[in-house]
Amino acid sequence: MKIKKYKAPSMPEVMKQVRKDFGKDAVILQSRQIKVGGIFGLFKKNYIEVVVGHDPEPVAPSKKKASKKEITVPEKEMISQKVSPRSNEMEQVYKLLEAQSKQLQLKLSPEEQLIYDSLVEQEVLPDIALKLIKEEGNMSSSEEKDTKTLKQSIHEKVKKRLAAIQLGFTHTHKVVQFVGPTGVGKTTTIAKIAARMQLTENKKIAFITLDTYRIAAVEQLKTYAKILHIPIEVAYNKQEYRQYIEQLQDYDVILVDTAGRNYRDATYLKDITDWIDPNEVTNYLVLSMTTKPKDFLDIYGKFDAIGIHGLLLTKLDETEQYGNILNLASNYSGIRIGYMTNGQDVPEDMVDPTLNNLSHFIIGEKQ
Ligand SMILES: Nc1nc2c(ncn2[C@@H]2O[C@H](COP(=O)(O)OP(=O)(O)OP(=O)(O)O)[C@@H](O)[C@H]2O)c(=O)[nH]1
Ligand SMILES: [Mg+2]
Fold it and tell me: Which site among 102, 174, 232, 359 is 20 to 30 Å from 79 CA-CA?
């Protein structure tokens, strides 16, 4: 849909210009009387301002024809024509109008601007959204794509990026550490994973906690250990940690809870690699989906540097913006998402990530 604004002293004069540009297929979207010129507000002349839309290739002919009828009016009725109530199609046109005002800034067509806006609303970082759209390479070429076609091809690109993410909770070592910022759900997620492993994989599990900063933190994991009948050890230093790992060799998996710390604290990241040889451990980074996009990437980058096997995404239920996943997939390769959690209840609030639900989160569409 192309949109253009016309201004002339009378409606026949406006229509002459419209017909010249678009022929008979133009749709009047808005018309109003305005005053132009004058000196110090005096002697202003009456003008007619008309906003016209023209769609060279209507997308859904049957539906569109009917609604076009509603808004294509004979010339003499135009001045009083109001475009309300807003139909879905009109809603779309108004959005396009709004988008048109922003497009100059980003040099996007109104259709592209709409898609850009919807991605940014999902908290896809603006430069990533722009890159996705620019890759289309259509810009203001003569074969400008309509919103539907453009949307489809951008959705394909989004899905392609998401498809590069590896899915599923795997681990290459007996010892699996759960690291990440404070309060993201590390301890709760460990309990969910332990329960899942017991129930579906019949695995023998042991816990070690390194989170000795808070008494409550130890008690929290001990409570889950008791319910699930899982042995638990509390390691206060590196030596104890090594010793407990040795002691627990008969178990299939040792799930290790760590203290949530400020990831900007370099000693914390150093401790993680210092306490155990990176070749002997699988690290899972636990990140909340409610984290701000830039922090999310920043945290991932910092932990990635110390060797992260995969990610556990928590608190999906606390947000409706999932751009973080696409931002990550656009910036890093070799990402794995083990599980996603969507509530506080252990063990049920945990879902297996699939390409379907990742796509659905970001573009509202199933694969
Ligand atoms: N809504 C929601 N809350 C969650 C989810 N996962 C964990 N929580 C809650 O988040 C809070 C913190 O969870 P913890 O498991 O203690 O987080 P942690 O990362 O171990 O915290 P620290 O050890 O203090 O760093 C608790 O109230 C959990 O119930 C989730 O998927 N959704
Ligand atoms: Mg904890």
Answer: 102
Whether residue 136 lies inside any domain: the answer is yes
Q: Is 315 in the pocket of ligand 1 (CB under 6 A)?
A: yes
Q: Rounded CA gap, 287 and 296, in Å?
A: 8
Task: Say whether both 170 and 157 belong to one domain.
Answer: no
Tens-place pLDDT, residues 154-163:
889 999 999 9
Q: 171 and 157: one domain?
A: no
Tokens of 20: 């010249």
Total count of domains within the chain = 3
Answer yes or no: do 294 and 180 share one domain: yes
Q: What is the DSSP string of 154-165?
A: HHHHHHHHHHTS
For residue range 76-130, list pLDDT tens digits in order: 444 444 444 556 666 776 677 666 655 555 678 888 888 888 999 999 999 999 9
Q: Which of 116, 96, 140 is nearest to 3 (CA)?
A: 96
In a domain, 320, yes or no: yes
Instruction: Kindly compute the dihedral angle of the four CA atoms of residues 136, 140, 145, 146, in this order, to the nearest 10 degrees.
Output: 130
Using a pLDDT cut of 70, give the percent of the chain over it. Answer: 79
Cβ of 211 closer than 6 Å to ligand 1, yes or no, is yes
Residue-range definition of the domain harbouring residue 150: 92-163
C-alpha of residue 47 to centroid of ligand 1, in Å: 62
Check pLDDT > 80 for residue 331. Answer: yes
Pocket lining: 288 vs ligand 1, CB cutoff 6 Å? no
